[in-house]
Amino acid sequence: MTLTDPFLALSARTGRFGHGAPRAYTLAEDGTRLLLLRSTGPEDPVERLHLLDVTTGVERLVADPAALVPGRSGDRDELPTAERRLRERTRLVAAGIGSYAATPDLATAVLTLDGRLFRTDTATGTSVELPTAGPAFDPRPDAEGRRVAYVADDALYVTPGSTPLSPRDGARWGVAEFAAAEELGRTRGHWWRPDGGALLATRVDESALPRRHFADPARPAEPAEDFAYPQAGGPNADVRLWVLGLDGGRVELRWDATEFPYLCAASWASDDEVLLTVADRLQQNVLLLSADPATGETRELSRTTDAFWVDELPGTPARLPDGRLLTAHDTPGARGLALDGKPLDTSGLQIRRVVGRYDGRLLCETGQGDPADQYVHLVDPDGGAPELLSTGGGVHSALAAADTLLLTSADAGGIRRVVRRGGRELPLTDLSAALPYAVRPRLARVTDRALPTAVVYPRDHVPGRRLPVLLDVYGGPGYQAVAAEPRRWQLRQWWADQGFAVVTTDNRGTPFVSPDFTRAIFRRFSGVALDDQVDALRALASHHPDLDLGRVGVRGWSYGGYLAALAVLRRPDVFHAACAGAPPTDFRLYDTAYTERYLGLPQDDPEGYAADCLITDAPGLTRPLLLIHGLADDNVHPAHTLLLSQALTRAGRPHSVLPLPGVTHMTPGGLNEQLALAELAFLRASLG
């Protein structure tokens, strides 16, 4: 489909206004240099590796895909299907250099292109291809850059050589399993010992898992694929950690993996100690363990427990250089921090992430007041009051090493990235397209639950003209939709300009308001989320008389797709049409780590799972419903939509289905814009 709409065409060409923007930063341990990825301009998707000298302000290109693989088109991926899916789950698929790894001093960087492995000398900008035993994935250099570890064909290798370091025992070595990559925030599976003499590696046994199958019409030459999937209530992958010495020695790290099956994080604290974080199946107990790599023995350093679930706070649990243990400290109204169990002074803040150390204190991304804004604070581990580093509202984030700070600020004025060092500020070069809309959503907290909401009107709206409402929804755990970050409002402004009042609400269960707000969905997805969306919509209409509640459409993807379908199935009195993209229609078919965290085991609460299932609601459909699903989606399998469609068909309920051959859960650039036109036509026809 050729995009004739100017905004949608521009959005597709510019990668939703991301092409040309710097990303994937790595600071040298002494703070003097910065590696980053960036393409050559707003319509170039091919990212190249650049090195910025922070002391001089000089930036150099150090690795260019066109030079490494001449004739490369920028969107090829010649890896086997299983490896390609692993890259997609770990977000490593991109045109050009999608990811890289570097030595602590940034002298050496390593990367892969189409499964070929390259080592780059960042001082000279020269790269050499290293021979591999097969298509390489997730390369990591040792601290000196002399050797590179990588994964090929489920085995862990170290250059030079073609013999795997890991045994050939039917397991997958050195990778993040599905649950870790999708739900636990761990996207890697091997780590070099600081002295380069050994690797810490995962061993992933998926033999007990059920298999899921794909026959992708977009890849007719490939055989039907199946892969191991940890389905709610069923077995998980058996994940263990081993120390694999370059001298052939092998030691397994031992903890109670039956009681604590999830490996959330791992790292070397020194040559003589490994730190790992593990969680029980329902994620109500999380342990920080110290392991002796010589014997495999582990001991507990800290334990975090919660009657609901331990909500991940990135950067915790951790041990500070002085030995004190940093953990999350939640109260019903706030997320905070504790050292050795003693709460730190973070009053008035919601800690969102502990970035690291800077100026002798903890560098943290925080909320303060309106959850739409994110700030950067320094938190004193010795009890002093927090210090604000960011300026003004918006969404601010940070990275630091030694005495260098990289601060990113996104607000109504755009996105700015500045490196601060020694009293000097150095802006990063941004070649991305200017945002076409200066969107100023009308933010408000509504109902007695203080739900964060936003309303976007057409730019030419005349007060007094009634508008159909489009609820643009996500509503699920882990994602905040109402945030003062300008790029996420661009498509909503386009929708508004098509003649809608676009409403977005963060219902209870979403993050960054308070622990109580997030945990309100415990053991129930459907009731709380839908009730909040309905109540917020009605509360907004009392303040926005131009919202026509007699014409309300809803659209969403993934959990948002579930909520969109739920809305028209259970509240047709409020919602009059829905576009549901990749909806998990029956959470008994979804993955273990996500689903059981919130809903528990299906065998322990079958009534709860049944209450959140959409299949049995099919006979009650009275409103137009468009189901959209990628046929290569291994996160929310296409079976979810197929089962709902079959139930609707058996019940004689008319509905529409839009299958997307070759499309995974993460829709590729340009497709979202094409889908927007299809959804627009459907909603206009459905809402009149």
Low-confidence stretches: 74-78
What kind of sheet is the major sheet?
8 strands, mixed
Number of strands: 42
What structural class results from the helix and strand content?
A: alpha+beta
- Mean pLDDT over the residues: 94
- Shape type: globular
Portion in strands: 25-35%
Distance between the amino and carboxyl termini: 25 Å
Major sheet: arrangement of strands: 35-36-38-37-39-40-41-42
Total number of helices: 12
Main traits of this protein?
688 residues; alpha+beta; eight-stranded mixed beta sheet; five-stranded antiparallel beta sheet; 42 strands
Structure description:
- This protein has 688 residues and is of the alpha+beta class.
- The protein has 12 helices and 42 strands.
- The strands form 10 sheets. It has an 8-stranded mixed beta sheet. Strands 12, 13, 14, 17 and 18 form a 5-stranded antiparallel beta sheet that branches. A 4-stranded antiparallel beta sheet has the order 1-2-3-4.
- Helix 1 runs antiparallel to helix 12.
- The longest helix is centred in the C-terminal third of the chain and has 18 residues, at 526-543.
- The chain is globular, with a radius of gyration of 25 Å.
